[in-house]
Design brief:
mainly alpha; 6 helices; disordered C terminus; 180 residues
Length: 180
């Protein structure tokens, strides 16, 4: 049986909480890097300029950075779990709007504003909850290592996943010589 600590939680329960925290860090890191390699495709799909898409990316980073400290304050005021779940919901709505964006305005609303707000509400609870749940240095170091690893993977996966385009470029022919 897992050993209980002073908060009454078992180490298994802590690991169950660590997974969503690490995945949230993955999402936040992924969000900061996924659009950079597909700027040309996005501008073509939304019938806008490359500069317009670059503005959307910049606004996301500015909104996230500007709201990070207020996000921490809201976490203190309204609770870690509430802000974490609200951040996930706001980010999710922004991601859906971004995916269905018919133009640059909706992309800026979804990706830049809503995803930026969601990220700013997600990150403070991740670090606060990790610090509070993992009291001893060894388990805290492992927890932060896991969270940082997923953050790094998210930052690396953003350009890889975000940059992959399933459709061939104009005039491109399949390189396969087989007719089937």
């Amino acid at each position: 049986m897992a050993e209980a600590d002073t908060t009454g939680r078992t180490s298994g329960a802590k690991r169950g909480v660590l997974a969503p925290l690490a995945l949230a860090q993955f999402i936040c890191s992924f969000a900061g890097s996924n659009m950079n390699v597909m700027i040309n495709d996005i501008s073509r799909d939304l019938d806008t300029t490359v500069q317009g898409v670059q503005v959307a990316i910049t606004i996301f980073l500015l909104v996230m950075a500007a709201l990070m400290i207020p996000g921490g304050k809201l976490t203190d005021r309204y609770g870690r779990k509430r802000c974490f779940l609200t951040g996930l919901a706001v980010y999710g709505v922004g991601a859906l709007l971004s995916a269905a964006a018919p133009g640059l305005g909706v992309l800026i609303l979804g990706n830049s504003i809503l995803e930026g707000i969601g990220t700013a509400l997600l990150i403070p609870p991740v670090y606060i909850l990790t610090t509070l749940l993992f009291a001893d240095m060894t388990s805290r170091a492992r927890a932060f290592g896991t969270i940082m690893a997923l953050g790094g993977i998210g930052a690396a996966a953003g350009p890889l996943i975000g940059g992959s385009s399933p459709r061939p470029s104009a005039g491109a022919r399949p390189s396969c010589s087989r007719p089937w």
